[in-house]
Amino acid sequence: xxxxxxxxxxxxxxxxxxxxxxxxxxxxxxxxxxxxxxxxxxxxxxxxxxxxxxxxxxxxxxxxxxxxxxxxxxxxxxxxxxxxxxxxxxxxxxxxxxxxxxxxxxxxxxxxxxxxxxxxxxxxxxxxxxxxxxxxxxxxxxxxxxxxxxxxxxxxxxxx
Length: 160
What we know:
This protein is an all-alpha fold. The protein has 7 helices and no strands.
């Protein structure tokens, strides 16, 4: 059995890689098709953020009675949680790190789109993703580890 520290570190790395892969290939790849379930990210979230300089008013009042970009995001995150439940008994700290990363992702993503000034200071890579002119880069939200590893962390100094 993996040591507890190794489980936790691998869980963080796995979650960051999953975030990068999902954002690049599913949310942007499949999401560009207007008829795809994933279109909410590209055609709703990105469109609103482009009009409002990263601010997304949909995060102000997230209600589970409305089916929109924010509730779809929560549904996807909930699905990821459920998919990892079987791993919890075998690798509790790995799974715990994944769950913590999912919660941190949602917290940071929501805060970034409610407070773009905060995002510019604390989540510059995500700020650059939305406003840097290159939406085919900066896929990570929580931490930019995989963007640096995969060479997709593109800094935009024009946004200073």
